[in-house]
Amino acid sequence: MESCGEDHRPRHNRRSPYNDLRPYNMSHKWSSLTFVPSDEAVQQLRESWSWLLREPFVPVLFSVLGDVFFEPRSGGVWWLNAGTAEVSRVAGSAEEFQSLLGTDLVHDWFMPDLVERLHGAGKRPSPGECFTYVTLPVFKEGTYEVSNLNPVNAREHFALTGHILQELRELPDGARVRINVAS
Question: Which residues on adjacent β-strands are paired with residue 24?
């Protein structure tokens, strides 16, 4: 199997082409639901998630909740949920994906109501930041709640989530886990 190569540059530019889209029945702006990571953060994504994303890919769109939509060399658009290490094919092409951004699927993929509550609580990521979890959703205590999310540099988010979820991948559901964080 190939590992995710460094030969593909991210499709994103400093302004996402999706910023001006208005999803179906939503009043949120794309700029509050997406972010543009630094090149270093994208490289960290490739490195920290290479155990799961083995095929070279091009990032398409980054959710402010730290998830990534990407196109692998084999095609389609896929969604990496960085809180659970789940990868799902969401569209057959970038064009189909863009059309789906105008549907109710946006609520599942980007959780605009949660983002609105985070902003209401004064939690707003700076440029190059996304939200990350205090307790990952793979754990019973890991919830999609304001108190469980904080803004962090995207490079740190991808490094932390990729490393922890790689370590957990072989454990059975319900296994007891102790995580020690060293500074």
Answer: none
SS3 label, residue 96:
helix
- pTM attached to this predicted model: 0.82
The helix (H) or strand (E) run that includes residue 113 is helix 112-120
From first to last of its 183 residues, the chain has per-residue pLDDT tens of 333 333 333 333 333 434 444 443 445 588 999 999 999 999 999 999 999 999 999 999 999 999 999 999 999 999 999 999 999 999 999 999 999 999 999 999 999 999 999 999 999 999 999 999 999 998 888 999 999 999 999 999 999 999 999 998 886 676 677 666 655
Nearest to 112 by CA among 161, 77, 63: 63
Q: Return the domain boundaries, the chain.
A: 30-168
Q: Please compute, for residue 76, the number of CA atoms within 13 A of its CA located in the half-sphere on the CB side.
A: 11
The closest alpha carbon to 111, from 157, 159, 149, belongs to: 149
* 43-56 exposure pattern, b = at least 16 Cβ within 10 A, e = fewer: ebbbbbbebebeeb
SS3 165: helix
User: Helix (H, G, I), strand (E, B), or coil: what is residue 92?
Assistant: coil
